[in-house]
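Example 9 (inverse folding). The structure is encoded as follows.
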């Protein structure tokens, strides 16, 4: 066992993936992301049918992702100040409860306000969860642990994305808004079992990740490598998210992830609208297939990454995302749409795990918090830009040409994926 694996073993005390803290993290993530995915494609439909059109639909996703991107850099400070339990609990409430307000009266400004609040909740849940999943990983199984955590984020999309569209079509929007609030409330009890805060380096080495022994750094409450250095530098690299962002080894994975999530923002926001008037329930089936394939691919990519290196699969994963997007040019063919969703889901799930694991491999444990922020910033910024940009584009081009332009942008990302394959 090498030195890094030894430190990880001290932190986790086990080689099992499903420790009690990890299991509770997965439960909290499933509840939070269930509330996120239920409305992800519903709110654009809600805005579009209320007269907002394609631009209004794009703005709902864009506003949420903007709030997420703005909130994420502050999450490590909140974790250091208030601890995982309070912060993740607040994130779950922000993801779910504001949706119930939409039952009071229909209003596009109110809808955007709800999207902003949900975006803050999303930023809290994903940044805290990603860093904690890496922290709880047993020796030599970090990519697989991240893959398992990725499944907890992806499984809710399997049901949530298609179920939200289906329920809103059958029952109306208000029951979906209330169901979203209920899901997040049901996840709150799991938060009580999470670690109180992220372990400091001294606590990990002593095998006391919750800081119960009152070790040398236990009173600071600061995530290791984030704010412990008063000058914000470690080893000549700036602290905070900037320190990870300026690390040149992370630039290509960040670009690759941002491009893939750009396409995902386009798909989840506009595919139900693009397929309106087509075969019955094709949008529901397409979203279900894409959402089912993605978490399986994410976990499989984690298994591969631990054994062969995470960056080795980036090129075929990006190619699958590009081909899946290009296939949506043929919206009139249900078979092509379904095959495209299989390709997109496989590539997108793999890209998520491969880029995240690659970034964790290239920074020491002290940089895990920064990696989590940068990765999630790239994810959410890409999704928001995709939704807003595509909404502006389709008013001029229509859906098929819009998907073609998106696929062309993804093909350009094959260049950094090729250079990063080793």
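The amino acid assigned to each position is listed next.
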């Amino acid at each position: 066992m090498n030195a890094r694996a030894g430190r990880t073993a001290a932190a986790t005390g086990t080689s099992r993936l499903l420790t009690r803290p990890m299991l509770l993290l997965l439960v909290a993530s499933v509840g939070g992301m269930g509330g996120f995915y239920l409305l992800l494609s519903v709110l654009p439909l809600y805005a579009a049918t209320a007269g907002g059109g394609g631009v209004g639909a794009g703005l709902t996703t864009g506003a949420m992702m903007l709030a997420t991107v703005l909130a994420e850099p502050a999450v490590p400070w909140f974790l250091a100040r208030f601890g995982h339990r309070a912060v993740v609990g607040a994130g779950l409430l922000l993801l779910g409860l504001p949706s119930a307000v939409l039952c009071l009266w229909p209003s596009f400004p109110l809808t955007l306000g709800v999207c902003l609040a949900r975006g803050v909740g999303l930023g809290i849940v994903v940044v805290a969860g990603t860093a904690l999943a890496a922290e709880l990983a047993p020796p030599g199984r970090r990519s697989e642990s991240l893959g398992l955590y990725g499944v907890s984020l992806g499984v809710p999309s399997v049901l949530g994305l298609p179920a939200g569209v289906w329920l809103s079509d059958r029952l109306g929007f208000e029951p979906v808004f209330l169901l979203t609030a209920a899901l997040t409330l049901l996840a709150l009890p799991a938060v009580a079992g999470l670690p109180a805060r992220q372990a400091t380096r001294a606590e990990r080495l002593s095998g006391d990740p919750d800081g119960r022994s009152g070790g040398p750094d236990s009173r600071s409450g600061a995530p290791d490598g984030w704010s412990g250095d008063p000058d914000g530098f470690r080893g000549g690299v700036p602290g905070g998210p900037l320190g990870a962002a300026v690390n040149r080894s992370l630039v290509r994975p960040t670009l690759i992830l941002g491009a893939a999530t750009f396409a995902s923002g386009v798909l989840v926001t506009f595919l139900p609208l693009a397929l309106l008037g087509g075969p019955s329930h094709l949008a529901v089936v397409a979203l279900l297939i894409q959402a089912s394939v993605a978490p399986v691919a994410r976990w499989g990519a984690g298994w591969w990454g631990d054994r062969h290196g995470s960056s080795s699969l980036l090129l075929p994963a990006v190619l699958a995302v590009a081909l899946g997007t290009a296939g949506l040019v043929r919206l009139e063919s249900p078979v092509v749409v379904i095959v495209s969703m299989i390709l997109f889901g496989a590539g997108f799930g793999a890209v998520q795990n491969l880029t995240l694991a690659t970034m964790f491999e290239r920074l020491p444990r002290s940089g895990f918090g920064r990696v989590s922020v940068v990765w999630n910033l790239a994810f959410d910024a890409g999704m928001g830009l995709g939704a807003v940009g595509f909404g502006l584009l389709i008013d001029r081009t229509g859906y098929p040409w819009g998907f073609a332009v998106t696929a062309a942008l993804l093909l350009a990302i094959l260049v950094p994926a090729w250079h990063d394959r080793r």
